[in-house]
From TrEMBL:
It is a multi-pass membrane protein. Its main location: mitochondrion. It comes from the Eukaryota. The lineage of its organism: Eukaryota, Fungi, Dikarya, Basidiomycota, Agaricomycotina. Belongs to the mitochondrial carrier (TC 2.A.29) family. This is Mitochondrial carrier. It is found in: Mitochondrion membrane. One of its GO terms (cellular component) is mitochondrial membrane.
């Protein structure tokens, strides 16, 4: 039986799509893992600052105080508390982001009848990025839930059944704390599988708008840098009296240099976090509420007391509660240190991703 030319083309397209997706997963995972190890202490600081907005008394006066107290009381291990979950999350996030981003671009090209060689306009790139962020948010929420719960473990008050003398004698770092698997299973036992997506609204808003800003800013800044380099090269060639250019020279002009990837990525990191930061603040508060403001308590003798008719936290309700508690400032708790760490972190991601694509295709 003969295979039609169309079927051969479809087969090649499918194969190339699978290979490209596999490469995006590998490159995105590597970039995400390295960047997360670098930024985790700052992310932990952000979550702890966000989680105290609804507390009557703040535990930390600011990011520097939070980092200092964590270092003194918990050491290096405390600064990297909950790291396994975000490392897995960063690998999954970046892999799914880059794969979905590419597929949404392909979808837009098919709808607008563009070929693969035609560069999409910026508004189409932003649209593809927003779609990629929306898809990724569903993967990211359960991972971030486990991460946030682990990051505030040392802030959870000791059980009321423990005497004050015993509590003061116990050093905080020696407390037996559950790991990521134990936290994950605990969430399922207490709230069911659906409970893993607590804070999904905040993640969806943050990832959809933030990823649009992330990829949009990266592509825009990269295009500006490339255009600037081309103009400079053209002026230099004109001054030197050079005529024409070979294929190799053209390839050099169209590819980003390492510092250009890093710089455009740094700008993208700042844009991502400035875009919709309050959504992330509300999400963190919702995901740590049960630990820091529990609706259940353990009475002497081990009896569990549940506060009756306690409504589940909602995105809108938590947002308004945080706004009433500390206003706009509370919604941007931890924003400064988040933007500061996202600039080098995002630079690392695109430096690694673009570098791997350049060397391996």
């Amino acid at each position: 039986m003969e295979t039609s030319p169309d079927a051969l083309i479809d087969g090649l397209t499918t194969e190339s799509t699978v290979i490209r997706a596999a490469k995006d997963i590998a490159y995105g995972s590597a970039a995400g893992m390295v960047s997360k190890v670098f930024e985790h202490p700052f992310d932990l600081t952000k979550v702890r600052l966000q989680s105290q907005v609804l507390d009557s008394t703040a535990r930390f006066s600011g990011p520097i105080d939070c980092l200092t107290q964590t270092w003194k009381k918990e050491g290096v291990r405390g600064l990297y508390r909950g790291l396994p979950a975000p490392v897995v999350g960063a690998m999954a996030e970046n892999a799914s982001l880059f794969v979905a981003y590419g597929e949404f671009q392909n979808l837009i090209r098919r709808v607008t009848s563009r070929t693969a060689d035609n560069k999409l306009p910026l508004y189409h790139i932003v649209l593809a990025a927003a779609g990629a962020g929306a898809v990724t948010s569903f993967i990211l929420t359960p991972i971030e839930l486990v991460k946030c719960k682990m990051q505030v473990q040392m802030l959870v008050p000791q059980s009321s059944s423990i005497s004050s003398s015993t509590a003061s004698a116990a050093a905080l770092p020696t407390r037996a704390l559950p790991g990521p698997i134990a936290v994950f299973l605990s969430v399922i036992r207490t709230t069911g599988v659906r409970g893993l997506w607590l804070g999904q609204t905040g993640t969806l808003i943050r990832e959809t708008g933030g990823t649009a800003a992330w990829f949009g800013t990266k592509e825009y800044v990269a295009s500006v840098l490339l255009a600037r380099r081309r103009r400079t090269s053209a002026l230099y060639a004109s001054d030197e009296g050079e005529v024409g250019s070979g294929g190799d020279e053209k390839n050099k002009e169209t590819g980003l240099r390492p510092w250009e990837s890093a710089f455009s990525g740094a700008c993208a990191g700042a844009a991502f976090n400035l875009a919709l930061f309050p959504a992330d603040t509300v999400k963190s508060a919702m995901q740590t509420a049960e630990e820091l403001r529990p609706t259940t308590s353990t009475l002497p003798g081990g009896t569990v007391n549940t506060t009756p008719n306690t409504p589940k936290p909602t995105f809108g309700g938590t947002f308004m509660a945080m706004y009433r508690a500390q206003g706009v400032r509370g919604l941007y708790a931890g924003c400064g240190i988040t933007v500061a760490r996202s600039i080098p972190s995002s630079a690392i991601i695109f430096l690694i991703y673009d570098g791997l694509r350049k060397h391996f295709g």
